[in-house]
Input
Amino acid sequence: MLQRKVCLLGAQGVGKRTIMSRFESNSFRADYLTTIGVQIAKKEFFVGKQTITMMIWGVADHEGFETTEMSFARGMSGYFLVADGTRPPTLERAYQIYERLYSFEQPPPEVPDPNVPYIQFPFRKIPFVLLLNKSDLAEQWRFEDRFLDVLRGRGWPVLKSSAKENKGVEEAFLSLVQKMSS
Amino acid sequence: MFTDYSDITEGIAEPPKWFDEHGVPRYGDFAPYRVANIYAIEVALVEVACQGCRHQFHVAFSFHTQPGLEEMVGNCSSLAEAIRKGALRYGDLPIYGHCRDGAADTCYEVRVLQYWTRPKGWGEWVRDSQLEIDLPDAKFLAEEDKQYEVLRIISLFPDIRGR
Output
């Protein structure tokens, strides 16, 4: 059995916790508690004849998404950039996180400093999905399909989901698993 | 299209504070008795915007029972009715500070900033703030602004197929 680490990254309030809760109990949590640090869930997927256990890390977004948060991403095999389809700035935040991951590669330190997390893993080739959540809020939804098609045309794997209505979440994870397996 | 009053505007350093019903620049504070139409029984100061560049102007509307400026209120029988129905039409923009295309375009009527009436048909002006409201174009512009925000963010995303 394969085990893979997957991170949910994105601005505060985009629905990372509710996406995770879909997998833990298949129930939607209406109450909201900002993630402190990181939250971990486990989910098994069957791809072909293989069982893949995904360790899903919901990483809290803090101002700057600096080294501490980045260290949570170490060792991941795939990730979701989660944005809220009703709040355009969260998509901009997802883009900032992507660029930070893309640019973040450190050479090994000559003298390890225990106070500075060391991140060696190259992020730039890790498969990801850009997930626009809260598709149930149709009247407030700001991203018309033509805008998403522009992103897809530039190579961005964009999917829509509603964690509240449990739509698109499973499909998004399967899509990522397939990218990770290929 | 209005007359170009650059002979006035270019001789004065500060921008006009508002424009009268004929696109004439005015430099004092707006007051209902300062509009061009001396017979007016209703007056409004309205924020309008250029269709091309969104440059904003404050322009005057006036209404009286004699023929003259009917186009401003469409088929309505008063300025108040035209405000309630969202039927105010200033027409083309005053010629000042907007983009090249603006002068020949009708403007967006955004919101009523001041509304004044003479209840007796003459004499003292009375302000009615209940008619100082957003006009239908305000909602349209707000929606467009949201689209602009989305487009701005979308434009940040590079083509990553070669990465």
User: Anything to note?
Assistant: The first strand of chain B starts at residue 18 and ends at 19. Chain B touches chain A at residues 146, 149-151, 153-154, 156-161, 163 (CB under 8 Å).
